[in-house]
Write a structure and sequence with these properties.
- With about 210 residues, this protein is mostly helical.
- The protein has one domain: Rhodopsin 7-helix transmembrane proteins (Rhopdopsin 7-helix transmembrane proteins).
- The chain is about 80% helix and about 0% strand.
- The protein contains 7 helices and no strands.
- It is found in: Membrane.
């Protein structure tokens, strides 16, 4: 892109004040998520839950911290850039977006596998009962590795459709663009189905427990 093309792309958003307010709000949400997760981790670590549950939940909270920092840093950067006279410096290249917001985008596709892993862990706890309390952390580690591996595969599939050329630079980074939105949408629909299965498993486990109590 030359300077004239960059200005044509960046100027409409640079002149639109509400977009900066929205980006500031999202950055604030990222900071809030980070602070709440930092507060929650030591509380949960000292709780009486099984080590497998602690491992998975603390890993999930650590991902919230990384996502919050990524979103806050990225959107604050965009607010600064959009507040300056528009030009090529205002736009972010695909590589720049990947480096700044890549981790938060990865987390968006990792939460479902992590939630599903937690559902399986709770299902195992209810199935084995008192025997589960004597088990070590191997199940939690296995479920975490499986969830992260699945997440990495999903994110790699989406990013394999990316156009890394500078001509694909954007005023602010999002979870998808015209090259990746189709694959990202497909993955989100699949993950929605997995979420529903996880909810069913949790509901079934609680139903079995309450039925046994009666």
């Amino acid at each position: 892109m030359d300077d004239e093309e960059c200005v044509a792309v960046a100027e409409p958003l640079a002149d639109f004040l509400p977009i900066r307010l929205i980006l500031l709000f999202q950055a604030g949400c990222g900071i809030s998520v980070t602070l709440q997760s930092l507060y929650t981790i030591p509380k949960y670590a000292s709780s009486h839950f099984h080590v497998n549950s602690k491992l998975l939940v603390i890993l999930l909270l650590a991902m919230f911290i990384g996502m919050g920092c990524s979103i806050a840093g990225t959107f604050l950067y965009h607010v600064v850039m959009l507040s300056m006279p528009p030009g090529c410096h205002t736009l972010a290249s695909p590589l720049q977006c990947f480096l700044m917001r890549g981790f938060s985008n990865f987390c968006m596709f990792a939460y479902t596998p992590m939630h599903f892993a937690l559902s399986l862990e709770r299902l195992a706890a209810r199935h084995f009962g008192s025997k589960y309390e004597e088990m070590g952390c191997w199940l939690g580690i296995l479920l975490a590795v499986m969830a992260l591996t699945a997440s990495a595969g999903i994110y790699y599939f989406i990013m394999s459709h990316e156009n890394w050329g500078a001509e694909n630079s954007v005023p602010y980074c999002t979870i998808g663009n015209k090259y990746t939105s189709s694959s990202a949408s497909t993955c989100m629909l699949v993950l929605l189905g997995i979420d529903m299965v996880g909810l069913f498993l949790m509901g079934f486990a609680y139903w079995k427990e309450f039925k046994a109590v009666k």
